[in-house]
């Protein structure tokens, strides 16, 4: 279909096929709009391509991480990672603290194929952080605006969890929306006991994994009450998905569609409407502008022919991933917008954010020599710890302004490359029969706690076009600038101390260095792969790129549907909010078409 | 689908059976109204071309996606087999590491084109030269020809770097690398997984959580 360009005018061109692009394509095509989706990577089908039960020993290097497959051989990410061959990006500084590591996935469905499936709602505070503590920016919407879309998104994609906890700034989903949470694993219960003593709440995690099959008779009518087509395609899609069978890692993708991937949950029903066309291997360079100052299409490079192609659309939705979206905007230069499309504020590329990450490991003697048990579970966490020190923070008792939640891992997982690599410090270098015995004893006794915390947007963390470097498609690349503030650095130090306390409370031994200097604990910018911001939304067109509908202030038929509109980056993992926001934006676009504003 | 076809009696399925079941489940799932579209509208699938790259390997039928020449000599492989069996010997519960091919895995590892593996190649090859030199210096014979007691005498001196003598620290780093690679080789096989009691990677109807016995041992239940 790559040859079809240039002739037809589509109603909407969607750039990107991940969470934001997939959701936009589904909602717009159900509404009857003719949609063209452009994806920079290849077509990808999890149903036929996922190595579900394959063992490490069947893979090169037993599945170990390599620069070509950084999360291991079986990770769903293809043609992606921290570097993409032929598609460089640059750093403004050589200082490690000032790096931004950019994970990309050039494939249909993007990063939704391997993501962690953690699906937490932003709370009321998270939309109005500036109003609470004077830092960063408020969103131009509040929790109530997005809550109905969180409800619908959770019903559509399937999220397990539990409701009714009533914790501060940790919204409960209404009854009847979440799927049942799986039972906790042994080490998770042990961690809960320790956290109970420390007054750290531990509740069922919310993950986009079906713990039971979706109710395809009830849900479609709730999601699309006014669309027979919507009900039909979504009911069929739900029927095609199986429940989790509590085996195989979600990060490989899921051939039975039990977890959420854009490629299994959004794109198939969108295609089934008959209103969606997808062109893969289409590397978008710029959004084009007509004489009236409206977007009229997109220019992409067809990676197979290495030729430029122009496609026309009445509206353009960019959802290429936050930094890539900013790159496309900056590269869309015209007499009207010499610094990039919709950039009259000068803020395109600014206020790039990631999540604060720091972790601590421990070894728990109580878990030694337990009888064999299957702890694969959902492959993600069953319990987690939401942020709990809101009152102390408000009272000024902490030296950082925003919170973090805790993600824990451990247990008797499948041994892979590197298995028992760290054991020598526990055994003073055992080998022979002693080593074998030690492996039996220590297997499944290691736990790890990772903090995932809010980063406050700042002036020194942004992306701009590198003035000299282009990629192999001839497109100018991004240069990243990065700087953590004291808030993030102090938060990372707080994580370290907290996790050490939890491990000690479990009767365990901390196996990491506990850093009191957060600079030594905090991971690189970008490392958590929660890249958001870059075309932030706001209530003032001088201080933001997008309005409350994720519509460009300067170009009314140009929208953004990925993480780039985020005005803050709460500790909650961004994907669920990207999905909900993209749905809300798509409803607005449909309304604009109906009112003939586009 | 999965829920209907699996019940708790299936949880002891062998992997092959599980794959078969999975294939059945996948085929029987109706994909109404989209299969045709997907085929028609995508610009290119790699299917017919079968061009795999290191960044896009065939994950279902894995082959080494880089052009690989195995580097180590037969003599080096023989020495590594001896060392692997010293590190993970056979016992009543499971076979030895070399009998499961640990030395060949190490060869695959050090022959890979990535920086980590290239560094490990130098460490392992250099270490083997040193090990045989050390054996000759102490006992007048190559390492493989030594008695078990003599071999252990050298291994005891290099099995833990923090306690190794200053002039043996590099030997300890070599030993630690071989131990790590041997452990990976052994514990990623079915006998290795069985040895430590890994019983997952099986489809199950329910996730039941820990047993009462485990909860009692952890003092999570009286």
UniProtKB/TrEMBL annotation, chain A:
Keyword Isomerase part of the UniProt annotation: no
Molecular function (Gene Ontology), one example: oxidoreductase activity, acting on CH-OH group of donors
Transmembrane region(s): 12-33
Highest taxon of the lineage: Bacteria
Signal sequence region: none
Cofactors, names only: FAD
InterPro entries according to UniProt: FAD/NAD-bd_sf (IPR036188), GMC_OxRdtase_N (IPR000172), GMC_OxRtase_C (IPR007867), P2Ox-like (IPR051473)
UniProt KW Flavoprotein keyword: yes
Positions of the Glucose-methanol-choline oxidoreductase C-terminal domain: 459-582
Domain Glucose-methanol-choline oxidoreductase N-terminal: from-to ranges: 27-332
Gene3D superfamilies reported in the protein's UniProt record: FAD/NAD(P)-binding domain
Keywords: FAD, Flavoprotein, Membrane, Oxidoreductase, Transmembrane, Transmembrane helix
Family: Belongs to the GMC oxidoreductase family.
PANTHER family named in the record: PYRANOSE 2-OXIDASE
Name by which UniProt lists this protein: Choline dehydrogenase
Species per Swiss-Prot/TrEMBL record: Rheinheimera pacifica
From TrEMBL, chain B:
PROSITE patterns: TAT
Entries under InterPro entries matching the protein: Gluconate_2DH_su3, TAT_signal
Protein name: Gluconate 2-dehydrogenase subunit 3
The species this protein was found in: Rheinheimera pacifica
């Amino acid at each position: 279909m790559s040859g079809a360009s240039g002739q037809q005018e589509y109603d909407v061109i969607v750039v990107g096929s991940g969470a934001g692009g997939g959701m936009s394509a589904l909602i717009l095509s159900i509404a009857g709009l003719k949609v063209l989706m452009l994806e920079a990577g290849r077509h990808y089908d999890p149903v036929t391509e996922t190595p579900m039960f394959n063992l490490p020993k069947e893979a090169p290097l037993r599945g170990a991480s390599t620069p070509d497959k950084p999360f291991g051989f079986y990770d769903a990410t293809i043609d992606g990672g921290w570097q993409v061959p032929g598609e460089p990006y640059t750093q403004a500084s050589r200082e490690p603290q000032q790096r931004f590591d950019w994970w990309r996935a050039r494939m249909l469905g993007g990063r939704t194929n391997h993501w962690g499936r953690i699906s937490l709602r932003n709370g009321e505070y998270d939309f109005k952080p500036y109003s609470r503590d004077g830092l960063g920016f408020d969103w131009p919407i509040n929790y109530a605006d997005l809550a109905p879309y969180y409800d619908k998104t959770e019903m559509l994609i399937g999220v397990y969890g539990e409701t009714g906890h009533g914790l501060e700034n940790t919204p409960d989903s209404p009854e009847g929306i979440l799927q049942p949470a799986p039972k906790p694993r042994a080490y998770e219960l042990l961690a809960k006991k320790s956290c109970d003593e420390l007054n750290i709440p531990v509740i069922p995690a919310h993950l986009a994994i079906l713990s039971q099959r979706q109710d395809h008779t009830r849900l479609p009518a709730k999601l699309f009450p006014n669309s027979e087509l919507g009900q039909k395609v979504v009911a069929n899609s739900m029927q095609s998905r199986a429940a989790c069978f509590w085996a195989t890692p979600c990060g490989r993708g899921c051939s039975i569609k039990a977890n959420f991937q854009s490629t299994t949950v959004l794109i198939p029903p969108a295609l089934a409407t008959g209103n969606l066309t997808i062109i893969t291997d289409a590397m978008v360079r710029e959004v084009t502008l007509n004489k009236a100052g409206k977007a009229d299409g997109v220019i992409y490079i067809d990676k197979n022919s290495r030729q430029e192609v122009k496609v026309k659309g009445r509206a353009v939705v960019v959802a290429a991933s936050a930094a890539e979206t900013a790159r496309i905007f900056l590269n869309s230069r015209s007499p009207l917008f010499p610094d990039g499309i919709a950039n009259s504020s000068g803020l395109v590329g600014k206020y790039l954010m990631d999540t604060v990450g720091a972790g601590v490991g421990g070894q728990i003697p109580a878990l030694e020599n337990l009888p064999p048990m299957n702890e694969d579970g959902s492959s993600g966490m069953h319990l987690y710890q939401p942020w709990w020190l809101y009152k102390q923070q408000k009272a000024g008792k902490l030296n950082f302004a925003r919170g973090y939640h805790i993600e824990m891992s451990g247990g008797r997982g499948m041994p892979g490359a590197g298995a028992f690599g760290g054991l020598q410090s526990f055994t003073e270098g055992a080998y022979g029969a002693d080593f074998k015995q030690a492996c039996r004893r220590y297997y499944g006794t290691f736990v790890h706690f990772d903090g995932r915390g809010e980063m406050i947007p700042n002036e020194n963390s942004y992306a701009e076009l590198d003035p000299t470097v282009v990629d192999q498609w001839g497109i100018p690349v991004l240069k990243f600038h990065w700087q953590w503030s004291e808030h993030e650095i102090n938060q990372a130090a707080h994580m370290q101390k907290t996790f050490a306390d939890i491990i000690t409370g479990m009767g365990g031994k901390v196996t990491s260095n506990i850093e009191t200097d957060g600079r030594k604990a905090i991971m690189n910018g970008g490392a958590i792969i929660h890249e958001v911001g870059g075309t932030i939304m706001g209530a003032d067109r001088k201080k933001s790129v997008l309005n409350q509908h994720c519509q460009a202030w300067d170009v009314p038929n140009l929208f953004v549907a990925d993480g780039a509109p985020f005005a803050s980056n709460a500790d909650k993992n961004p994907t669920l909010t990207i999905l909900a926001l993209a749905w809300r934006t798509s409803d607005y676009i449909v309304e604009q078409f109906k009112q003939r504003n586009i | 689908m999965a829920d209907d076809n699996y019940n708790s009696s299936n949880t002891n399925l062998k992997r092959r059976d599980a794959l078969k079941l999975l294939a059945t489940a996948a085929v029987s799932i109706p994909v109404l109204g989209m299969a045709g579209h997907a085929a028609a509208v995508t610009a290119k699938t790699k299917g017919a071309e079968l061009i795999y790259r290191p960044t896009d390997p065939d994950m279902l039928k894995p082959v080494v996606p880089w052009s690989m020449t195995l580097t180590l000599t037969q003599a080096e492989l023989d020495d590594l087999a001896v060392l692997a069996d010293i590190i993970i010997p056979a016992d009543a519960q499971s076979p030895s590491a070399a009998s499961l091919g640990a030395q060949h895995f190490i060869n695959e590892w050090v022959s890979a084109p990535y920086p980590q593996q290239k560094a490990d190649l130098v460490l392992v090859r250099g270490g083997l030269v040193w090990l045989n030199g050390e054996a000759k210096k102490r006992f007048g014979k190559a390492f493989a020809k030594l008695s078990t007691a003599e071999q252990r005498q050298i291994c005891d001196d290099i099995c833990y770097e923090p306690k190794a003598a200053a002039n043996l620290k590099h030997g300890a780093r070599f030993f630690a690398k071989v131990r790590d690679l041997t452990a990976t080789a052994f514990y990623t096989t079915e006998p290795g997984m069985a040895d430590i009691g890994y019983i997952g990677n099986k489809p199950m109807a329910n996730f039941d959580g820990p047993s009462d016995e485990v909860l009692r041992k952890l003092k999570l239940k009286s």
